[in-house]
Structures are given as structure tokens and as C-alpha cells.
Write a structure and sequence with these properties.
The structure holds 2 protein chains of 2 kinds.
Chain A lengths: L4 E4 L11 E6 L5 E6 L2 E6 L5 E5 L7 E6 L7 E8 L4 E7 L3 H9 L4 H6 L3 E6 L6 E6 L5 E6 L4 E6 L9 E7 L6 E6 L16 E6 L3 E7 L5 E8 L5 E6 L12 E5 L4 E6 L2 H4 L1 H9 L18 E6 L8 E6 L6 E5 L4 E6 L6 E7 L8 E8 L14 E7 L4 E7 L1
Antiparallel strand pairs in A: 1-28, 2-3, 3-4, 4-5, 6-7, 7-8, 8-9, 10-11, 11-12, 12-13, 14-15, 15-16, 16-17, 18-19, 19-20, 20-21, 22-23, 23-24, 24-25, 26-27, 27-28
Chain B lengths: L34 H4 L36 H8 L22 E4 L13 E7 L9 H15 L4 E7 L7 H9 L1 H7 L3 H11 L4
Parallel strand pairs in B: 2-3
Antiparallel strand pairs in B: 1-2
Helix pairs in contact in B: 3-4, 3-6
The chains are: A mainly beta, B alpha+beta.
Chain lengths: 405, 205
């Protein structure tokens, strides 16, 4: 315990001086998208200064931003979800190396502003009230949005080419009984594919109705709720999937965090857990081929709460993040405390490594995420590898933290 | 508003409202929150234009003790901040309608608790008593209280606004909404609602 510490690194500049809701790291590039007021500021994680701004697309606050994965490095695409009930798709393209040189040779950085050209390419309309979260699927082919209108919408890319932004609603999921606060797509891991029954994509949603729901695409390409996770006694502020492959390629677990001050881990009960032989037999069967509808495996999945993390927070936990590299979990919330937890992989028990009060002084902390380190302060051999935490607060600070375990 | 939810409420006169028996001296300076900025030495008094100490510029810590710093915020001060909010239906204050009552304001940790610093999270719980049990405006009133206190109190204060138990038929729903930071933030971006709130807060000094 004594060897673990979290140390503040210099905050990203400039200070945004207003509530910032969330910061999303790019899946591969050294970029971070921070949603605040009606805009998004993209920070460079190399220089720790702004890279570009997304402004003018929304009439109310932007609550969340998500990077489109699997694009070439000179192309960027962000989806934004706003309190104005719409989601936006934005694109940015590097105008080429020539231009880059021009800028570097130019006087100071004034031209940098002009380079700052995100194009607002499409608005996704349909929700009746504030969008709370908006997120690209691991393949980039789907976007999921959720809202105070209690629904989750799934949109599919039907554009003719990558740059042709044309998205179609393929599902409107109405089973939550309250605002849907956050979404998370299951990452693309070997354990994600379950034999037969479902498509590979899997979505989890967290709600004001105190539940988490798990959604999958059935054999008829219908999105259905396969599980309701009920244990929390307050709004579930969000969900995270386990990003690290599990032994035996078991299905990734879910972590949920709530206004009740608890963080829970949920595990899918898989047939192999109950009967070791079924797994082998199951592989022989070929997906849905030849099996009549009525004989299909039940559309219900059995998710069980298998752990509760040590209690640290006295009030709402607004964010938690689960490292795909180390398996460590960090959480933060209304009390402004930043906490770090580790699982004992033998026993499955979680322990608190460190808890740091007043991470943003007296302010509430709205978000925390694991993120790779790219700045000059890190050893070059560890650049883009070493993980740090980034917290985002009501004070408008975007604060990186060095973590040593 | 065509019909009032409560057409004939009980109204207290100003002399019946709680006040401090012994008035504490009014603050003579600005809020503590801005002291650092206000009393900061201007940058033109810094090097390279100016060497060493400027004797005529007061140090910001010189204000400590003499101004607001010494007096912690107590229940009466919270009461004074919110009892003057106007009812959205009646041209009278929440204090006069007994929607806000001094005994229903709780501060944790209590004022004057030793060891409380500027980063100590202090929770202010305000229990409002809507004038009638089915008052549809309970949420708006609660929101007004929360917004007023968020505007006035330093950032280490967490404001919890609830309906007093059994005073409202949908307590839990209202309490949950008022406790939801995201909903509160979104509500303040709703022009209609913001208009109602601004009107309610107009009467606050």
C-alpha cells in the first residue's frame, strides 16, 4: 500500500474556467476531447495545450464526445451528444505535410487558429430531450445515443464511403424507466463472441431508474434487452466494460457506479461455468443454422453481481475507469476524492490502493479516465505506453495524474 | 398560469420571521471567494517593471481575520439567502409562506467545527415544505433554492434540497430530481424554466 501513489502532473492549459463534463482520449493518437459548455476542446497530449476546438454545432451544453475508431492518422472524427437533444458528427482532416511545414515556419502560432477547422458534417435528430451520452461502437459502424427521454438509439453507418456521413436509426430501445445516463459498448475481445444466438456487438446502459441493462442483436437483427442488473439504490451514473482479456476468453465483465456511492462488478454466467462439457458440445453446433426459433438458447443472459469495491465515496460516484492494460480501477465523484482499486486475481477481491481527497480542491470531479502518456515528462521509451489518469472537474481543470503501483 | 395550485396560502408577516437576535456586523468587504483576485498585487507592480516589495500594496493575507474570513456560514445566513426567494405563484417570499423554515436547515459539519478548511466539503441540507401536498411547483421551488445557494456559497459547499418528509405526495421523485446535478444543469439551459427561476430570485438581495 505504501508504494502506491498518485501524483498530480501539470494541468492541461489553458484552464477552461467553467464546468467541464468529460474527457475522452483518442483510441490511438495523443489527443483528448473535453466537453464543456457548448463546445469541445481537443487537447494535444504531447504539448498539453489545445489542438483544436469544436464550436457552433450545438445550442446547449455538450455532455459527451466519442472518437470514431479505426481511421487513418490524418483523419479525425468525433460524435458529440448535447443537451440540445441532438448528436453531431464532426470531421477534421490534416491538410497534408506541406501545410504543416508552412505553419511551423510561420510566425508563432497565429495560423494555428485557422488550422482549427472541424467541419460539422451531420446532426442526428430524434431524441425528445437532452442527450447524455453518445458513443461509437468498437468497429465504428454504429453509434449509440441515450437521453433523458428514457431511450437508447442505435444508429448505423449507411454512407457510401468513409467520408460520406449518412447514418440511419436501426433501433430505439425504450425499456428503461428513467433517464439513460450513460452507455458503453463491449470492447472487441475474443471473449465477446458467444456461440450462436447473438451478433457480436453488445451494449450496456446505465439509468436514473437505478438499473443497468445489457442489449444485444438477436438472430433477426433486432436489438433486445438480454439482462437487467438490479442492485444499485440510486441513479447509475455509468458503466465500464473490462478491457483486459479474461482467462479462458470468458465474456468481459461490467463495472457500474452509482449515486448510492457504490461500485459493482457484474459477471455473465456462461454455460461452461455450470457444465464444463456443454462448451465443447456447443462449439459443434453451427450458430443458428438449422435450429428452430423455439429451441434457441434463451434470450435472457444471467448477469450476477460478483463484487462490490471497497466503499470510499460518501455521495454520487460520477465516473470510474477500468484500465485495459493493468486492470486497475479509478473512481471519482461529488466528494472530489480520487480513488484507486486493485483486484486480487486469485480471490477476486478488490482492495483500495489509495484515496486522494480534494483532487480538484473544493470542486466536484465529473470524470476520470485512463489515458496514455505522451508528454516530454515521460521517458521516450515509455511514451504512448505508460498510463496516467485524467480527471475533469467543475473548476474547468483537466488534470493528469501519474500513477505508481 | 390559469389556476393556482394553492389559491389561499397562509402568509406570515415580516416580524414573525426568524432573524438573528444579536445582529452580526454586516460584511464590509467582498465575498471571500474573490479576495485573492481583488487583493492580488497587479501584474504591473511585478518585475521587470518594479523590483522588490511594494510597500503600499497590502498583502492579501493581511485581510484575514479582519474581514469575512473569521465568521463561518451558519443556518441563519442560509435562511437569509433563500427565505427571500419569491414563490412562483404568489407575490410573497418562501419565508413568509413557511416553505423555508430555519429549523429545517442543517449544515454538516456544523459551523465552528475545528479543522474545517477551504477544501472541507460542507453539506447544506434544506428541507422545503411545499404549501400543499400535491404542489406541482415543488420541483421549481427546490430548484430555486439549490440555484440560489450554488450561486452564493463557496465551491466546497454541497447543497442538498429535499421536500420535508410527508409534505409532498411525490417526495422521492422530487428529491431525486433535485439531487441530480446533470438534470439541474440541463434545466438551467431551458429558457422557460430559467425565466421562472430568475423571477423568483429577483427579490433576493
Amino acid at each position: 500500500m505504501s508504494s502506491t501513489h498518485i501524483r498530480p502532473l501539470p494541468p492541461l492549459t489553458p484552464d477552461l474556467h467553467e464546468r467541464a463534463w468529460s474527457s475522452t482520449p483518442h483510441p490511438t493518437l495523443p489527443l483528448l476531447a473535453t466537453a464543456h459548455a457548448k463546445s469541445v476542446t481537443v487537447f494535444s497530449l504531447t504539448t498539453l495545450t489545445p489542438h483544436s476546438n469544436l464550436t457552433g454545432g450545438h445550442t446547449r451544453s455538450v455532455r459527451a464526445a466519442s472518437w470514431k475508431p479505426n481511421l487513418p492518422p490524418h483523419k479525425l472524427c468525433l460524435a458529440t451528444g448535447s443537451f440540445d437533444s441532438t448528436a453531431g458528427i464532426w470531421r477534421w482532416e490534416d491538410r497534408g505535410a506541406e501545410h504543416e511545414t508552412e505553419i511551423r515556419n510561420g510566425s508563432d502560432g497565429d495560423e494555428k487558429e485557422e488550422e482549427d477547422d472541424w467541419e460539422f458534417t451531420l446532426v442526428l435528430e430524434g431524441h425528445d430531450s437532452e442527450i447524455k451520452n453518445c458513443i461509437f461502437s468498437p468497429s465504428g459502424a454504429h453509434i449509440a445515443t441515450c437521453s433523458r427521454d428514457k431511450s437508447v438509439w442505435i444508429w448505423e453507418d449507411i454512407g457510401a464511403s468513409e467520408s460520406d456521413d449518412d447514418w440511419e436509426t436501426i433501433a430505439v430501445l425504450n425499456e428503461h424507466e428513467g433517464d439513460v445516463k450513460a452507455l458503453a459498448w463491449c470492447p472487441d475481445l475474443p471473449g465477446r463472441s458467444r456461440k450462436g444466438t447473438f451478433g457480436v456487438e453488445c451494449l450496456a446502459s446505465a439509468s436514473y431508474d437505478n438499473t443497468v441493462r445489457v442489449w444485444r442483436e438477436d438472430g433477426d437483427a433486432e436489438w433486445v434487452c438480454v439482462a437487467v442488473l438490479e442492485k444499485h439504490e440510486g441513479t447509475v451514473w455509468g458503466v465500464q466494460w473490462e478491457g483486459r482479456p479474461r482467462k479462458g476468453d470468458k465474456f468481459p465483465r461490467i463495472l457500474s457506479f452509482s449515486a448510492d456511492g457504490t461500485i459493482r462488478i457484474w459477471t455473465l454466467t456462461q454455460p461452461s461455468d455450470e457444465d464444463g462439457q456443454e462448451d465443447g458440445a456447443g462449439q459443434g453446433r453451427n450458430a443458428l443454422g438449422g435450429i428452430p426459433n423455439t429451441m434457441r438458447q434463451s434470450l435472457r443472459e444471467d448477469w450476477v453481481c460478483t463484487a462490490t469495491l471497497p466503499k470510499v465515496h460518501e455521495s454520487d460516484i460520477y465516473a470510474a475507469t477500468w484500465s485495459a492494460t493493468t486492470g486497475l480501477v479509478a473512481s471519482t465523484g461529488s466528494d472530489g476524492t480520487l480513488a484507486l482499486y486493485k483486484e486480487n486475481e486469485e480471490t477476486g477481491e478488490w482492495s483500495l490502493l489509495v484515496s486522494l481527497p480534494n483532487a480538484h480542491g473544493p470542486y466536484e470531479v465529473n470524470h476520470v479516465t485512463w489515458c496514455r502518456r505522451w508528454d516530454k515528462g515521460v521517458d521516450p521509451s515509455r511514451r504512448g505506453v505508460e498510463e496516467m489518469l485524467i480527471t475533469t472537474g467543475d473548476d474547468g481543470l483537466v488534470q493528469p495524474w501519474e500513477v505508481q503501483v | 398560469m390559469a389556476t393556482l395550485d394553492n389559491a389561499n396560502p397562509t402568509i406570515l408577516s415580516a416580524s414573525q420571521l426568524p432573524t438573528r437576535q444579536q445582529r452580526i456586523p454586516l460584511r464590509t468587504g467582498p465575498d471571500l471567494k474573490y479576495n485573492d483576485i481583488i487583493f492580488e498585487k497587479p501584474s504591473y507592480l511585478s518585475r521587470p517593471f518594479c523590483d522588490g516589495q511594494v510597500a503600499s500594496w497590502p498583502r492579501s493575507d493581511a485581510n484575514d481575520g479582519s474581514l469575512a474570513a473569521a465568521e463561518p456560514i451558519d443556518e441563519q445566513e442560509i435562511y437569509d439567502l433563500i427565505s427571500t426567494i419569491s414563490d412562483p405563484e404568489h407575490p410573497v417570499s418562501l419565508g413568509q409562506l413557511s416553505v423555508i423554515n430555519l429549523p429545517d436547515i442543517h449544515i454538516t459539519p456544523a459551523p465552528h467545527t475545528p479543522g474545517v478548511g477551504p477544501n472541507t466539503i460542507i453539506t447544506v441540507l434544506v428541507e422545503v415544505t411545499p404549501t400543499i401536498t400535491h404542489c406541482s411547483l415543488a420541483t421549481v421551488i427546490g430548484l430555486g433554492v439549490r440555484v440560489r445557494l450554488e450561486q452564493c456559497l463557496p465551491p466546497n459547499y454541497r447543497i442538498v434540497v429535499r421536500c420535508k418528509e410527508n409534505s409532498h405526495s411525490q417526495d422521492d421523485q422530487v428529491n431525486k430530481q433535485l439531487g441530480d446535478k446533470e438534470r439541474v444543469a440541463a434545466a438551467l439551459e431551458n429558457d422557460t424554466l430559467k425565466g421562472v427561476l430568475d423571477k423568483m430570485l429577483e427579490t433576493c438581495a
